[in-house]
Amino acid sequence: MLDNQKSKSRRVLIASSHPLFGQGLVRLLNEKKSLQAEVVGMVSNLEEALEAMQRLKPDLIIVDYDDEKLNRDEFLARFVEGDQKIRVVLLSLQSAKEALVYDRRTLAASQIDDWLKEWPAVNDEPKIPMQNTEMQQKAKHRRSSMRHLIIAGLLVVAVTALLILGLGQVRLLPEQASAQAIPIDQLFDLEFKVIAFLFSLIVVFMLYSILVFRRKKGDVSDARHVEGNTRLEVAWTIAPLITVLFFAYLGGDALAETMRADPKALEIKVIGQQWAWRFEYPDYGIVTDTLMMPVNQQSILKLSSNDVVHSFWVPEFRVKQDALPGGNEFVRDLRVTPTLTGDYKVRCAELCGLQHATMESPVKVVSREDFEAWVIQETGVSEDPVERGRALVQRYGCVACHSLDGTRIVGPSWKGIYGATETMTDGTTVTIDEAYLHESIIQPLAKIVAGYPTNVMPLNYGEQLNDQQIADIIAFIMSLK
């Protein structure tokens, strides 16, 4: 009988809904040329198998044991019952080392190479329940998977703890100097910890898989076909969604804390212009280029702009807000309660032109007593028009465009300009006298010195300054010889 089997080619029918299973099996049978096996067809379900059995007359049907879309019990019931000459084997490719074959005649598991060697000689033997062997394999696989999961999980916890410890030694944020910075820093701290965990979760599992499950030297077999894990995919979708919503709630709560109003807040008008800041104190009639703030008292900053969009930002306060042009209807509010005395800087956080990088002004947080002393000093009027002009130039940010030492920046330097002769953009020459300076302040586009931009000087100084203040500024310019 064995001689008759060896003398003819054995016709094989493959049942699997996975194309890679069929392709791999065809290659395996082709390598075993001594078996004289011929794959006559591939089907994906029992109905197609029954139809192919009648049409192709196979000697053997190999069923994908791991294919959940196939009902292997139906295959066994259909082909084990009755006087069937067709042999049926269930082939599993999910073994940790090699494929396992469950022969329907023996219903016992064997390594595929051993089974292929004995294939022509296998005869009817007492049936051994397959369920126990299958359960043993699954239990072994679960134990192995759980062991790897526990090891990787412990590594994730360890790396996360090390990252959090390391981040705690690094100053990630500037000094905390306002009450509004407290909820913001708390939110940042939690975000840094979550980021450390997510980084560990991704990197540890990736490196662990690369090191532990890498292909061994000399292994040329096909990888196990994996279709996915629905429960893992659902969990990996829901968990980030819940995390994002949780942080959205925390962000909203932190925002509400930064906007909490104090009815006794000190009002300060903050005006941005290219490229300087000006601060006005309506309660005291003070205009200055230095932001003075009493410690532990909330200040409400009324932000506006004379030209383009600027953005008020003191990093130590954490909060920032845009200053918009367009008048009173576009004034934006920003509340700050300084908690630490010291010197800081306000920066423009919105790209606003050529001198954007230098648009800074000092911020001084002082005690209540020092603030009141400063108010008394600033409200005193000097008898010297040059000194009054010097103060006005600083308050209105004129030095952002006009240097006092001869340096060429956006506008002409004021040093030695009085009495000089300059060429205008229209080719005419003008002597710089008091009349020209007065005209240039209130009508900056009337006559412009050649070589300088024509659309930088604010057009509303005539409305902001009275005649005496303009005269004081001219006196100061005249003094710069």
- Radius of gyration equals 42 Å
Proportion of β residues? Answer: 15-25%
Largest sheet: 6 strands, mixed
Number of helices: 13
Please give the structural blueprint.
Elements: H1 2-7, E1 10-15, H2 19-31, E2 37-43, H3 46-56, E3 60-64, H4 72-80, E4 87-92, E5 100-103, E6 109-111, H5 112-118, H6 130-168, H7 181-212, H8 230-258, E7 266-273, E8 276-281, E9 286-288, E10 291-294, E11 299-305, E12 310-313, E13 320-323, E14 332-336, E15 342-348, E16 360-366, H9 368-379, H10 385-395, E17 421-423, E18 429-431, H11 434-442, H12 461-464, H13 467-479
Parallel strand pairs: 1-2, 1-3, 3-4, 7-11, 10-16
Antiparallel strand pairs: 4-5, 5-6, 7-8, 8-9, 11-14, 12-13, 12-15, 15-16, 17-18
Question: What features would you describe in this structure?
Answer:
The structure is a single chain. With 481 residues, this protein is an alpha/beta fold. It has 4 domains: 2-128, Response regulator (Rossmann fold, 3-Layer(aba) Sandwich), CATH 3.40.50; 138-215 and 229-258, no CATH class; 266-379, Immunoglobulin-like; 385-479, Cytochrome c-like domain (Cytochrome Bc1 Complex, Chain D, domain 2, Orthogonal Bundle). The protein contains 13 helices and 18 strands. It has helices at residues 2-7, 19-31, 46-56, 72-80, 112-118, 130-168, 181-212, 230-258, 368-379, 385-395, 434-442, 461-464, 467-479, and strands spanning 10-15, 37-43, 60-64, 87-92, 100-103, 109-111, 266-273, 276-281, 286-288, 291-294, 299-305, 310-313, 320-323, 332-336, 342-348, 360-366, 421-423, 429-431. A hairpin with a 4-residue loop joins strand 8 and strand 9 (286-288). Helix 7 packs antiparallel against helix 8 (230-258) and helix 11 crosses helix 13. The radius of gyration is 42 Å and the shape is elongated. The termini are far apart. Residues 1-7, 104-109 and 121-128 have low confidence and may be disordered.
